[in-house]
Amino acid sequence: MGSRLRAAALCGAALALAGGTLVALRAWARLRSRLALPASSAASAAAADQGKGRGKQILVLGLDGAGKTSVLHSLATNRVKRSVAPTEGFNAVCINTEESQMEFLEIGGSESLRSYWKMYLPKVLLLVYVVDSADHARLPVAKQLLHQLIQNNSTLPVVVLANKQDLQGAYCITDIHDALALSDIGDERKMFLIGTHVAEDGSEISSSMKDAKELIGQLVLETQ
Structure pTM? Predict the structure, then answer.
């Protein structure tokens, strides 16, 4: 199962050269029919999971300014809602789908908050890691932090969102794949790389964002 999901993601990433913002999930969607996949404060949510092994939350991390909050608001409402101010602390969002209830926990990406990232990682179902595709200068930092996060957890599913694909100068999917050295993460893990963007305020979310939401929901069902 994991190898097929991973193969679909890598197939989408390889095809990204043609369009720059091609979504890795497109290849996965064609395989989906063959896969048998069976609002409180952040502090309260985290406390509820203590001592229970792996919790039910989806951890959302990334550098400050990557667009984590905007992505979460867009996923929750299916409408674009830009957030300008960076998250100073924690942000909990609950998203209901037909199949499940997804609890997202975002932790701010400023340097002072990154020390908290690893504290929450052992208790989550999967990691959503958001990078700014146009922030070339800080991609090495994003890479280093991602690899440090998951080096001791070889099975945690990871969904990397190469965000802000609509900005001029944004790296395409294959460039982000190389910049983050995702090939070095290992073959045991379910890992996906999807290009996303948050366009005009109030508009319907892009197809890539819809695909990301669907993929996350399927991974939650499979992991629980």
Answer: 0.76
Please tell me the predicted confidence (pLDDT) of residue 107. 93
Largest CA distance in the chain: 47
Question: Is it the case that residue 29 has pLDDT exceeding 60?
Answer: no
The answer for residues whose C-beta is within 8 angstroms of residue 168's C-beta and 6 or more apart is 134
CB 188 within 8 Å of CB 2: yes
**pLDDT over 90 for what percent of the chain?**
38
Amino acid identity of 33?
Answer: S
Sign of the Cα torsion 122, 42, 197, 205 reads: positive
pLDDT in tens, 103-142: 999 999 999 889 889 999 988 999 999 999 999 999 999 9
What 3-state class would DSSP assign to 122?
helix
Alpha helices in 16-54 (DSSP H): 25-31, 42-49
Query: DSSP string spanning 167-214?
Result: STT---HHHHHHHTTGGGS-SSS-EEEEE----STTSBPPHHHHHHHH
Nearest to 94 by CA among 86, 85, 103: 103
In whole angstroms, give the CA distance from residue 11 to residue 28.
9
